[in-house]
């Protein structure tokens, strides 16, 4: 098996996982408190990347390169997501003239 | 064709087929829907009658039975057949259906195709309930019937028809849903005991005891009690009756309510004899209480239809006493009383409908002195009223009498309470009759009302004939249910011990 | 089954049925008034003839074996429970059937004249035939259940005929009152039958015909229900039924109101036949009472009290029919006294004689009313002996018979009853009976005086009734005269073949004659004092009224019994019914429970809808919160 | 790869959908619907006639076994119905036809892939292939409401996706595999297994979001209401079916008693919340959205029966999808404004257009689960699974919830069949044949439940 990205043993696994989770949590927190739609989009990307870090970190534990490949897929997915999200944001801007999430309350009840 | 399952199927499905045909009539032929419906329901009566005459009262068990595979993945089968009790209900349904159709000819003017299609579909549903011997099939017919009835009340009903129809539908369906859960439990329980997946009714006789049996029994009992309707589950009935068109009321009172009682006889009690033995008295007590309660509330009405509706609560209360007391005479009486109530209350609704068609009001206060204007109608109404209050010589007496005499031996208190209904029924029925028919013609709008027309005579005469027939010669009908009644009592673990009359004992 | 099969019996009940159907269905359209009347009368005559034929056949049998039976079909059969549609003719039912069909026939004929010109003529005769049919079913029934059919059937006929002129709301109400009051009694009757059947079934006896019941009466005597002797309870319950039908206290209130019906109906149903059904029933079921003497005491006391109460009320009434109605109640009380004293045959004897003279009196009253075009107030009559001579003579016959003047019918039977009561040892009852007898003589004399003596006080032209009315009355009058003697000689031994001949004590006879005489004299003294004075305003009952105004008002208003029933029973019950509907039914069950559940879910739905704010971040918060909960649950699953 | 026919059976349906979808993007708008429809029909036919064997040309990544066949049949049929039932008028007026008929089949391809793959990464990627077109489709009308629906869906969907990835990461980290079958390994009590279990729960939450289970359901009413009605139909049927099936797969793969307990509560809450929240609704689309939430709860009830519940879940999904597509499609045909049809808007429909009213009544009554309609048999068999799985309490809740639901289902029928009203003015349009077929299926499907239950029972061994 070829290790694409050999990680040194000096950084404990838990730290890397912790970093990923922290990034994820930061994104989630931002998602819950920020108002701007673009910022929310960025927060989602942050969450996704945090999850990716965790995934990559685990390529060390079972000692498999697979996660490193999967993360590439995830990047693609995230990029597509960002594309759709931005397009929708443009549409929102055109229709509502604002990017404040509080404006998105036409559908409720 | 031999008198057998084919004929049974014909009687069940002919109305539905005709209903579909009527629904598909082109708009230009809408006027044909009524006559077509009448023809088909009359045609369906012929096989039903043939079955009744071909029924052998001496044979135990089901006759004209058929058993075909249906949903093999579930173990559900298409099993139908009739015993003495269901045969009687079956013929009652087939008998009332043409009358209901005929009563609608002038009353229903809008969406006639859909109306008659609903009525005929309803007929198939009701006949199916009485013939079904497979639990799933029974449940399907049982619930399916609600849809056409819901339409009949909701579309062609009175002012508050929507409220009434939705209430009717939700109330009765909600009651039945717990039964569904109980059916499922039984189904898997049976499978775990025997390894066989089946819904055959016969497989479930005496199928659970103890606390489980009681819970399951109550689930079934609730479903049936709502339909009966047993106090305090009755409040959907007055609303449904008042708002339903005449035919709907006839069917509702004549057949639908009987299904609740029938459910007790065919399912709830034989499935859980132990629980029924324990819970029988409280439920019958509700019935007896309902006799008094229904009579009192009927007395308080000023709307004729509502009065009749509440009287149904009273009538069926006494029937429930008869069914649960498990005494041969009482059970026979209860079964016969189901028919009697169907005839007399059906006829009452029919008569009220005739009045309503003429004056468009159901308030007693709007009438008075009708006997002078419509003497023939008054006579008919009188006979029906008397039948309803159980005058000897007419049908109502036979049933009440047998129930009371049978029940007295086991539950004297309940019989005596129910006896109070004998007095009260005279109070409210004759009070109503007096307000409507006697006295001077105070309201000028009533002066020109025409008496019964030929079509209306055709509606009431068969009912009157049966009312008298059953009163004078009930044995014709009783003979055919004897075996089935005994089967029922045996399955129910009856008869119950009679109370002690020994001297010195209390 | 014992008894002789005798298919003729059914022919006794069928002609009136046919008459009912023919007159009812075809009458108005196809039959003339005369034809309808004749048809109705003939039907009953036919019954009478068959009754006579049957009687002669019965008489041909040896005295111990006098029982004829006719089973038409098995009526009800459910499990072991079987009731036949069977008729029986024994001396008791034979007498009753003869009285019923005979008196009925006469009254039918009378009615042809009385109802002449009425719009509902055919309906009337059809109802009358209907009544006779059910009355004969009642009389001839071979089991109490079939008897109950007749019992309720005659009640229905009574209801229909009381409310015959239904356009008058009061008359319609009177009919309803009669039916409902009777129903209360009937419920008692049914309860008694239920207990009787239960007792018999418990003893393994499933047949309910009278012979079987009689043979097994000891079963009832040996059983008990709720701690009370069953035979006693059955007896009392059946008697409750009898108090309804035969208008005894406390259920007598319907009978005076029942006078709203046409007068021949009052004569037939509410005097001669139907109201005596209770007495007949008790006589029929006497084997039960023999097993429960305590029940007889109840009958005796109730009969006595009713007889006295009704006689007192009758004293103060102004309506000629009301007087007769209360008199009927009172006389029925006498019959029950007889039964209560154990002398059912004496009761039936009085029943028979009473049928004659009371029918006569009613028909006479009818004749008066007919002659005065509907006037019923005694105070507006007077002097009719001049205008209606035949009627007067006939009424006077009835008067003497009812008063108990020998040798007319009433004397024999009433005297026999008092004697029986006395010998049974009920001294106080006997005394009350005697007083009642005196009162009876008083009020009927008063009626005679007010109506026929002095001068005419009314405005309508008074005229004598036609022969079609007076001839039947004449026949009844004849019977009222000879009925007592014939009965004493022939009827009593026929009813009770084995019984020892009566020993009439001269003292007894003297006392009762004295009582009657006292009543008559008092009436002439009090009521007749002003005869000839022509001063109408100061008419005699005033003197009584003036002497005891309060008492008079109390009596005149029938002790306010109707009002008390109304206030204590009917009104509260009706209000309770109303309340039941308004509060427990509409508000609690339907309102709070049924619709309340619906409302609860609806408001829950609105709350959930309100939580759906439209804010995506709130949605995410719920998402996260829920997820955290689930995660906590998972981890708890591992670590707890 | 031993049998080229098998490989073709696997690849061909995906291509048969995807290629015409791309063609739909390129042709004249008028032809786009036909292209997409023909593609889906061809794929459906291909799947129907194929004889799957459990052969793994791509390992667990793409499997074509009898189970897949059943999944695909359901998804393709639903997608096909959604495509052909999109009113032509709606496309001409508001929807960009080319994009619409491209995105919808592509989403269907995603669903097919999602249900054919055996590893979680594949499932996730496929899920994104499903979701991304849907975000766009939800906003396809480019109105304010559409944009709002699209963006909300996008935001919450991405949020859920991120959680799913995190879950996959932890699952992989603990178990060392991303195969669904390896979920069986989490039924221990070690720390690792707890982490795996938590991760697995996160994964399931992602699909619970798509399936609209409480508490992940809150987007559903807003999005269904704001999205073009045919898109709502697709989401409520095909997408929900895909999500529920994958959820079922995960659930039975883990087969963890703890999950049974959790799902018990989730099912109960979902049924209750969905049905109760639907009660006061007056907009039919929103009502149906809540109804679809409730139905997810019913489906979860069936999960209590474990693996053997599959035939019941499958049959119910088929019946539910048919009724839902039918109902939404009728709303699509009837609606005049962006907001869809209100109850008042249905008033008098029966008089104006009896055929459509009757069909809508059939669909709604089936959703309500009233015999003899297929919905009843579906529910019956579904609840039966819960009883078999010893969860009778949940069945009691389920039947009570069904009783509550009757009210709002009936309100639709009542509106259609009462008097004259707004709908009386609706021009009578022809009722599409597909709608009749759906109606016939819903009407009679229950009596022929064997057709679904027996093949599904045969496919049972292929469940992990």
**Strand element count of chain C:** 5
| Extended strand count of chain D | 1
From the helix content, strand content and strand pairing of chain C, which structural class follows?
mainly alpha
Q: State the helix count of chain C.
A: 27
Q: Judging from the principal axes of the Cα atoms, what is the shape of chain C?
A: globular
**Over all CA atoms, what is the radius of gyration of chain C?**
31 Å
Strand order of the largest sheet of chain C: 1-2-3
Describe the main β-sheet of chain D briefly: none
Low-confidence stretches of chain C: 531-539
Instruction: Tell me the β content of chain D.
Output: under 5%
**Count of separate DSSP helical elements of chain D:** 20
- What is the end-to-end distance of chain D? 22 Å
Helical/strand content category of chain D: mainly alpha
Largest protein interface, residues of each chain: B-C, 66 and 63 residues
The major β-sheet of chain C equals: 3 strands, mixed
Estimate the strand proportion of chain C.
under 5%
Mean pLDDT of chain C: 87
| Approximate shape of chain D | globular
Unreliable sequence segments of chain D: none
Spatial separation of the terminal alpha carbons of chain C: 84 Å
The share of residues in helices of chain C is: over 70%
Textual characterization of the structure:
The complex is a heterotetramer of chains A (109), B (506), C (640) and D (464). Chain A has 109 residues and is mainly alpha-helical. Chain A has one domain: Orthogonal Bundle (Helix Hairpins), CATH 1.10.287. Chain A contains three helices and no strands. Chain B is mostly helical and 506 residues long. Chain B has helices at residues 5-23, 33-54, 84-103, 112-131, 135-144, 146-156, 161-194, 210-227, 236-243, 246-271, 273-299, 304-325, 328-359, 370-373, 375-388, 395-410, 412-437, 454-472, 475-491; strands at 63-71, 76-82. The longest helix of chain B is centred in the middle third of the chain and has 34 residues, at 161-194. Chain C has helices at 10-25, 27-30, 33-60, 91-114, 121-140, 144-162, 169-202, 210-215, 217-221, 230-245, 254-257, 263-272, 277-284, 286-291, 293-315, 320-340, 344-371, 384-387, 389-403, 409-424, 427-452, 467-495, 506-526, 541-547, 549-556, 561-611, 616-639; strands spanning 4-5, 68-78, 81-89, 224-225, 228-229. In chain C, the strands form two sheets. Chain C has a three-stranded mixed beta sheet. A two-stranded antiparallel sheet of chain C has the order 4-5. In chain C, helix 4 packs antiparallel against helix 5 (121-140) and helix 5 (121-140) packs antiparallel against helix 6 (144-162). The termini of chain C are far apart. Chain D contains 20 helices and one strand. In chain D, helix 3 runs parallel beside helix 13 (310-334) and helix 5 (97-116) packs antiparallel against helix 6. Chain D is globular, with a radius of gyration of 21 Å. Chains in contact: A-C, A-D, B-C, B-D, C-D.
């Amino acid at each position: 098996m070829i290790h694409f990205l050999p990680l040194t043993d000096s950084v404990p696994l838990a730290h890397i996982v912790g970093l990923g989770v922290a990034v994820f949590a930061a994104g989630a927190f931002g998602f819950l408190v920020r108002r701007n739609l673009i910022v929310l989009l960025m927060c989602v990307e942050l969450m996704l990347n945090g999850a990716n870090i965790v995934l990559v970190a685990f390529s060390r534990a079972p000692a498999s390169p697979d996660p490193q490949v999967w993360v590439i897929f995830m990047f693609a997915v995230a990029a597509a997501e960002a594309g759709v999200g931005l397009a929708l944001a443009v549409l929102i801007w055109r229709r509502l003239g604002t990017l404040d999430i509080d404006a998105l309350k036409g559908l409720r009840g | 064709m031999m008198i057998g399952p084919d004929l049974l199927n014909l009687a069940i499905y002919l109305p539905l087929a005709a209903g579909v045909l009527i629904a598909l009539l082109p708009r230009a032929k809408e006027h044909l829907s009524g006559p077509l419906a009448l023809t088909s329901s009359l045609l369906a009566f012929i096989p039903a009658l043939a079955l009744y005459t071909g029924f052998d009262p001496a044979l135990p068990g089901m006759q004209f039975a058929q058993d075909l595979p249906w949903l093999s993945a579930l173990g559900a089968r298409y099993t139908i057949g009739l015993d003495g009790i269901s045969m009687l209900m079956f013929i009652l349904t087939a008998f009332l259906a043409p009358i209901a159709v005929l009563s609608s000819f002038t009353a229903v003017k809008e969406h006639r195709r859909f109306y008659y299609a609903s009525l005929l579909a309803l007929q198939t549903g009701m006949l199916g309930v009485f013939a079904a011997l497979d639990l799933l099939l029974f449940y399907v017919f049982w619930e399916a019937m609600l849809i056409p009835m819901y339409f009949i009340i909701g579309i062609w009903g009175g002012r508050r028809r929507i409220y009434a129809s939705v209430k009717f539908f939700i109330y009765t369906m909600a009651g039945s849903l717990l039964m569904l859960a109980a059916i499922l439990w039984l189904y898997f329980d049976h499978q775990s005991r025997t390894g066989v997946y089946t819904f055959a009714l016969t497989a479930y006789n005496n199928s659970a005891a103890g606390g489980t049996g009681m819970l399951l029994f109550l689930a079934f009992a609730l479903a049936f009690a709502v339909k009966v309707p047993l106090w305090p589950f009755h409040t959907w009935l007055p609303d449904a009756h008042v708002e339903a068109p005449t035919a709907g009321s006839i069917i509702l009172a004549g057949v639908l309510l009987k299904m609740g009682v029938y459910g007790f006889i065919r399912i709830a009690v034989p499935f859980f004899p132990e629980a029924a033995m324990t819970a029988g008295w409280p439920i019958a007590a509700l019935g007896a209480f309902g006799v008094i309660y229904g009579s009192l509330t009927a007395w308080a009405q000023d709307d004729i239809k509502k009065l009749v509706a509440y009287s149904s609560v009273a009538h069926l209360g006494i029937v429930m006493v008869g069914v649960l007391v498990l005494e041969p005479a009482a059970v026979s009486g209860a079964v016969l009383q189901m028919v009697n109530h169907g005839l007399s209350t059906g006829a009452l609704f029919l008569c009220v409908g005739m009045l309503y068609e003429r004056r468009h009001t159901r308030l007693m206060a709007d009438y008075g002195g009708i006997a002078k204007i419509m003497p023939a109608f008054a006579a008919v109404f009188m006979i029906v009223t008397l039948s309803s209050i159980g005058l000897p010589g007419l049908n109502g007496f036979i049933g009440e009498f047998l129930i009371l005499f049978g029940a007295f031996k086991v539950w004297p208190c309940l019989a005596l309470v129910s006896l109070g209904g004998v007095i009260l029924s005279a109070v409210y029925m004759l009070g109503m009759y007096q307000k409507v028919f006697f006295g001077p013609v105070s309201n000028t709008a009533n002066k020109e009302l025409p008496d019964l027309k030929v079509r209306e005579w055709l509606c009431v005469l068969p009912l009157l004939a049966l009312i008298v027939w059953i009163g004078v010669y009930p044995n014709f009908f009783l003979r055919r249910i004897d075996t089935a009644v005994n089967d029922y009592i045996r399955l129910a673990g009856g008869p119950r011990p009679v109370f002690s009359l020994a001297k010195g004992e209390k | 089954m014992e008894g002789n099969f005798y298919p003729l019996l059914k022919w006794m009940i069928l002609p009136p049925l046919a008459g009912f159907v023919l007159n009812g269905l075809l009458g108005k359209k196809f039959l003339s008034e005369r034809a309808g009347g004749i048809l109705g009368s003939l039907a009953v005559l036919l019954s009478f003839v068959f009754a006579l034929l049957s009687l002669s056949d019965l008489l041909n049998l040896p005295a111990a074996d006098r029982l004829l039976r006719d089973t038409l079909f098995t009526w009800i059969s459910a499990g072991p429970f079987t009731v036949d549609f069977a008729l029986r003719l024994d001396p008791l039912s034979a007498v009753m059937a003869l009285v019923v069909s005979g008196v009925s026939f006469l009254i039918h004929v009378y009615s042809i004249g009385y109802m002449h010109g009425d719009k509902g003529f055919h309906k009337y005769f059809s109802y009358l035939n209907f009544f006779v049919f059910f009355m004969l079913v009642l009389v001839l029934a071979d089991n109490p259940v079939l008897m109950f059919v007749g019992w309720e059937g005659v009640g229905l006929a009574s209801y229909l005929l009381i409310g015959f002129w239904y356009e008058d709301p009061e008359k319609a109400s009177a009919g309803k009152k009669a039916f409902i009051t009777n129903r209360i009694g009937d419920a008692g009757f049914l309860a008694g039958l239920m207990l009787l059947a239960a007792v018999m079934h418990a003893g393994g006896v499933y047949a309910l015909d009278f012979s079987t019941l009689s043979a097994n009466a000891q079963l009832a005597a040996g059983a008990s229900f709720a701690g009370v002797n069953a035979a006693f309870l059955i007896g009392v319950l059946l008697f409750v039924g009898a108090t309804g039908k035969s208008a005894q206290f406390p259920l007598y209130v319907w009978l005076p109101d029942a006078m709203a019906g046409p007068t021949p109906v009052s004569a037939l149903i509410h005097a001669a036949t139907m109201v005596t059904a209770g007495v007949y029933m008790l006589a029929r079921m006497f084997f039960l009472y023999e097993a429960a003497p305590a029940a007889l005491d109840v009958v005796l006391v109730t009969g006595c009290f009713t007889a006295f109460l009704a006689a007192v009320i009758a004293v103060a009434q102004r309506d000629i029919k009301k007087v007769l109605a209360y008199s009927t109640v009172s006389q029925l009380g006498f019959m029950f006294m007889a039964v209560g004293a154990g002398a059912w045959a004496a009761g039936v004897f009085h029943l028979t004689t009473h049928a004659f003279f009371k029918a006569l009196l009613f028909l006479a009253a009818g004749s008066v009313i007919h002659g005065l075009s509907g006037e019923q107030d005694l105070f507006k009559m007077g002097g009719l002996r001049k205008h209606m001579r035949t009627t007067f003579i006939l009424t006077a016959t009835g008067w003497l018979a009812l008063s108990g003047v020998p040798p007319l019918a009433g004397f024999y039977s009433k005297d026999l009853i008092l004697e029986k009561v006395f010998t049974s040892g009920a001294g106080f009852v006997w005394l009350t009976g005697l007083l009642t007898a005196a009162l009876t003589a008083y009020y009927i004399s008063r009626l005679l005086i007010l109506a026929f003596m002095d001068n005419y006080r009314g405005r309508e032209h008074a005229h004598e009734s036609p022969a079609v009315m007076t001839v039947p009355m004449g026949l009844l009058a004849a019977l009222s005269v000879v009925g007592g003697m014939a009965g004493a000689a022939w009827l009593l031994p026929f009813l009770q073949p084995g019984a020892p001949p009566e020993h009439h004590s001269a003292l007894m006879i003297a006392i009762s004659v004295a009582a009657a005489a006292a009543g008559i004299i008092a009436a002439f003294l009090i009521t007749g004092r002003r005869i000839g004075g022509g001063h109408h305003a100061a008419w005699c009952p005033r003197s009584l009224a003036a002497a005891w105004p309060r008492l008079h008002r109390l009596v005149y208003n029938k002790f306010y019994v109707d009002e008390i029933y109304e206030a204590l029973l009917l009104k509260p019950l009706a209000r309770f019914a109303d309340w039941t509907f308004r509060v427990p039914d509409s508000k609690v069950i339907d309102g709070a429970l049924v619709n309340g559940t619906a409302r609860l879910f609806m408001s829950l739905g609105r709350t959930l809808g309100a939580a759906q704010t439209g804010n995506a971040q709130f949605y995410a918060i719920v998402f996260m919160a829920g997820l955290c909960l689930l995660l906590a649950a998972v981890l708890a699953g591992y670590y707890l | 790869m031993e049998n080229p026919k098998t490989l073709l059976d696997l690849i061909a349906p995906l291509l048969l959908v995807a290629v015409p979808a791309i063609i739909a993007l390129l042709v004249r708008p008028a032809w786009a619907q036909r292209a997409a429809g023909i593609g889906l029909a061809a794929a459906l036919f291909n799947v129907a006639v194929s004889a799957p064997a459990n052969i793994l040309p791509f390992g667990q990544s793409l499997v074509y076994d009898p189970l897949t066949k059943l999944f695909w049949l359901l998804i393709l049929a639903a997608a096909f119905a959604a495509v052909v039932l999109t009113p032509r008028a709606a496309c001409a007026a508001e929807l960009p036809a080319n994009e619409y008929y491209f995105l919808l089949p592509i989403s269907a391809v995603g669903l097919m892939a999602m249900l054919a793959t055996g590893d979680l990464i594949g499932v996730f990627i496929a899920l994104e292939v499903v979701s991304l077109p849907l975000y766009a489709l939800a906003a396809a009308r480019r109105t304010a409401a559409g944009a709002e629906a699209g963006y909300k869906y996008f935001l919450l969907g991405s949020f859920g996706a991120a959680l799913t990835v995190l879950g996959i990461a932890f699952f992989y980290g603990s178990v060392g595999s991303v195969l669904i079958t390896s979920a069986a390994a989490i039924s221990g009590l070690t720390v690792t297994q707890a982490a795996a279990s938590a991760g697995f729960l996160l994964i399931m939450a992602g699909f619970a979001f798509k399936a609209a289970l409480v508490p992940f359901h809150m987007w559903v009413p807003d999005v269904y209401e704001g999205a073009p009605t045919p898109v709502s139909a697709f989401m409520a049927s095909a997408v929900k079916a895909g999500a529920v099936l994958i959820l079922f797969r995960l659930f039975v793969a883990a087969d963890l008693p703890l999950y049974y307990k959790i799902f018990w509560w989730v099912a109960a809450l979902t049924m209750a919340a969905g049905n109760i929240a639907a009660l006061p609704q007056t907009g039919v689309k929103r009502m149906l959205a809540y109804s679809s939430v409730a139905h997810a709860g019913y489906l979860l009830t069936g999960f209590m029966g474990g693996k053997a519940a599959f035939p019941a879940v499958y049959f119910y999904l088929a019946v539910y999808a048919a009724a839902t597509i039918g109902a939404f499609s009728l709303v699509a045909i009837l609606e005049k404004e962006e907001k869809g049809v209100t109850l008042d808007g249905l008033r008098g429909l029966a008089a104006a257009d009896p055929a459509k009213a009757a069909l809508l009544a059939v669909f709604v009554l089936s959703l309500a689960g009233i015999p003899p309609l297929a919905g009843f048999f579906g529910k019956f068999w579904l609840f039966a699974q819960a009883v078999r799985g010893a969860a009778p309490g949940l069945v009691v809740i389920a039947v009570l919830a069904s009783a509550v639901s009757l009210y709002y289902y009936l309100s639709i029928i009542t509106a259609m069949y009462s008097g004259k009203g707004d709908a009386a003015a609706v021009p009578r349009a022809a009722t599409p044949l597909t709608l009749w077929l759906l109606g016939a299926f819903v009407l009679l499907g229950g009596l022929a439940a064997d057709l679904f239950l027996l093949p599904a029972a045969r496919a049972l061994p292929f469940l992990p």
